[in-house]
Amino acid sequence: MKKWCVEDWEFELTVIDGKAAHCRLGLEMGDNAVCNRCKQGDYAG
Predict the structure, then answer these.
(1) What DSSP string runs through 1-45?
(2) Which of 3, 12, 20, 36 sees the fewest Cβ atoms within 10 Å?
(3) Residue 15 contacts residue 31 (beta carbons within 8 Å)
(4) Which residues are within 8 A (CB) of 5 and not within 5 positions of it... i.e. 6 or more apart?
(5) What is the pLDDT of residue 41?
(6) Residues 6+ apart with CB under 8 A from 23
(7) How many domains are there within the chain?
(8) Residue pLDDT, tens place only, 14-30
(9) Mean pLDDT, range 19-44, rounded to an integer
(10) Domain that holds residue 30
């Protein structure tokens, strides 16, 4: 049986150029977003 890797990562995105009208999410210069994946078993919802 193959062992599974525990996913545990995070990264931050920072908008460095553009206007809200140019982005589907409405992000503007200077906006930040943090994306992550919880460890197995830590997911609350």
Answers:
(1) -PPPPPP-EEEEEE--S--GGGSTT---TT-EEEEEEPPTT----
(2) 3
(3) yes
(4) none
(5) 55
(6) 15
(7) 1
(8) 999 988 888 888 889 99
(9) 79
(10) 1-45
